[in-house]
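[job 4471] stage=fold_predict status=RUNNING
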Amino acid sequence: MLKQNKKSAKKILMEGKVPHELIEGIKQTGLSEISFDVGNMGTWEWNLESGTMKWPAQFKQLDGGPGFSLEKILNNLRANVQQGSVDELITEIREMLTGRRERLHVEMQLTRAENELLWIEAQGNAIFDDKRKLKKIIGVCIDITERKVHEQRQVFLANASRALSFSFSDAVALQNLGNLMVEQICDACAFDIRRANGYGNEIIAANAKISSDSLAKTIKKIVSPEIENKVLRGKSYLCPYVSDEDIKSWSDNEQEYRYFKELHIQSVISLPMIARKKVIGVMTLISSTSRSRFNSDDLSFVSDLADRAAIAVDNARLYEELRQSDQAKGDFLSVLSHELRNPLTPIKMSVDILKGADVSDKKYEEALFMIERQVGHMTSLLDDLLEVSRIKSGRISLRREIIDIKVPIKHAIDTFVSIFPSKKKNLKISIADQPILISADALRIEQIVVNLLNNAGKFTAPEGSIELIVTRHNNEIEIDVVDDGVGMSKDILSGIFKQHKDKLLENNERGLGGLGVGLQLVKSLAELHDGRVTAESGGLGKGSKFTVILPSLISMDNPETIKMSLDQSLTKNLSKHNVKNAVGNQEVGDLKILIVDDNKDVVQSLIMALTKLGYVADFAYDGREAVKKFASMGPNVVILDIGIPGMDGYEIAKRLKESKPKKKNFYLIALTGYSQSSDKEAIKKAGFDQHLIKPISLFALSSVLKNIKSDLESSTASS
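[job 4471] inference complete, writing C-alpha cells
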C-alpha cells in the first residue's frame, strides 16, 4: 500500500495536479516523512487559522507556529529561502490570499548547514471556507537538488568552454576560467602548467578572502610533494574535510598556523590536466566557509573542467607552434627571395644595357635573350613561392572586376611565347571571337594560364604540340591546356597539385623536375575564384591535360555590359616599351643619385645603368659610408637596399632623414629582394617614397627617375 501510494503521488506531482484528498491520505498514512527518506518526497501544510506551517523534518527550518502571524511566516521564509525563489513563492501566496489563485507551484533554493544548498519543488492547493477566505494551503514537495545541480553544471561547463576559447593564449584562457570558477564554484584555484623545462608560470584566481599574492605559496603548502607526485602520475586528490591536524601539517611555525586558520579552508581538490595522454599541468581548487565542502560528485565535475582546460592549453600550444612555424616559413621565404633576387638584379640590368648597344652579331643577341629568359624563369619561380605562401596564410585577396577573359589569356600567351619562343609555332589556340565575361582578378587569371602553359612547355619536346582551348558551357568557363609531352603515371597524377617531398623526388628521378609550386598556385587561385582544377593523363609518354573551370557571368547578351567590360580590359593592356628607348632618348639631367647596397655586382650594374642614362651616381657599401657620402654629395635620390649587414636599410634611412640639410628634399627608394606584404608595410612605415623589387629592368628604373625629376622640377618652379 505504501509503495503504491508513493508511486501515485510522484506521478501526480510530475503532472502538476495534486488533489488535496491525496495529500491528506499521505499525511494520515505517515508517508510524508518516510517518502522523503526513500524517494525525496513529502507533504507540507500552512494553516492560516492556527498560524502554523509544517514541512517534512528535512526542512524543519521552514516550520512556523503555532500562533505565527502571516508576516512572521513570510519573514521565516525570507530567512531560509534564496531571494529569487522566495519572491516567487510569496507572490503566489499573496495571490491565494486574494482568492485569484488556487494552485501553487514553485522551485525553491534553501541553505542548510555548512552552506549546503538544497532545491525543492513545491506544489500546493488552496483550501477556502464558504466565504472564499483562505483557510490553509496543503501540498507535496520533492527534492530536485540533483537535477538543479546537473543543470547548473551544464551551464557552467558551457560558460567554461567559452572562457577557454576566448583567447589563443593559454595563460589568458586559464585566467578566464579561474575567474569564472572563483565566482561560482570555489574560493580559490590555481593552474600549474608544465613547460618544456619543468613547471613554469602559475595562473591563479581567488576571492577577496584569500590574497592572490600569497595563493601560490599557500597551495604549495597544502599540496605536499607526495600529493603532487600522485597527481603528476594522473591520480586525483580530494580532501573533503580539512582538520586542525591538516592545518598543523601545512604550517612551519605559529604565524603560518594562524594564517591558515584565518582562511577557514574547508576542503581541497587537486587533479591532473591531461591532454593526449600526457599530464601537462595541475589544477587545484580550495573551498572556504563561503562554499559547501567538496565531495566525490564535485571531483567528477571538476575533472571534466580539468580535461577541457588541458585541451585548451594543448590547442593554444599547437596554435603557437603553427604560428611560429608559419612565421619561420615566411621569414625563410623572405630571406630566400632577397638572396636570390640580389644576383638577378645585376644580370637583368647588364642584359638591358647590352640590349641597348648596337651589335649586329646574331649569336650575341641570342645569348642575351637566353640570359633574359632564364632571369624570367627564376623571377617567376620566386613569385610563385611567395604567392603560395600568401594564399595558404590567407594574406591574398582578389581585385575582382568584370573582364573579357580573353584579355588576360592573351597576355599569358605573350608571356609563354617570350619564355618558350621555339614552341610558338606548335602552340594551337582555340577561343571564341565573342567576349567571354567573368568577374575575376585579371592578373590572377593570367597567372593561372601562364603556369599551365609553362608546365606544358617544360614537359613537351621541341617538336611536340600544345593546345590552349577556352570554351563557355552554360554558366562556366573551361580552360584546357593539352600537350603530347611526357605525361604522368597514376601515382604522380594523384599528388600533382601537392608539393609533396616523395612526389618531387619521383618527378626528379623520372626527369620531370620542378617543385610543383606553379600547379599549387593554379589550384589555389582557381579556388579563390570559386573554381576548380583537374589533371588527366593516359600515362607516361601519353601527354597531359589540365582543365580549369571558372564561373562565368550569366548575362552575356547585354551589349552595354560587354562594351564596359572590354573598355575596362583594354585600359590594362599597356603597350610594351623597348629598352633602347629608355637609353637613347634620355636627356642628361641634374639628378644626383646615391646607391647603397652591400652587393658589389648590384652596385656596379646600377652605376653603369645610371651613367648610361646620363645621371650623376655614387655608391656606398655600408651605413657609415652612406651617411658620409650623403653629407658630401647631397643627392636628390637615394636607392637603398634593406638587407644590409650591420646598419640595415631602415636605420640608414632614419640617419639620412635626420642629417638632411634644411629645405633640401630627397627621394628615398627601397630597392630590395624583400617583397612580402609585411616588408611593404615596414618599408612604407620607415618613410620610403617608393618600394622597388629586385630584379628591376632598365626601362622601369628610367621611368621612375624621370617621374622623380619631373616632380622635383615642378616643386622648384612653384617655390
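[job 4471] summary: The chain has a mean pLDDT of 77.
[job 4471] exit 0
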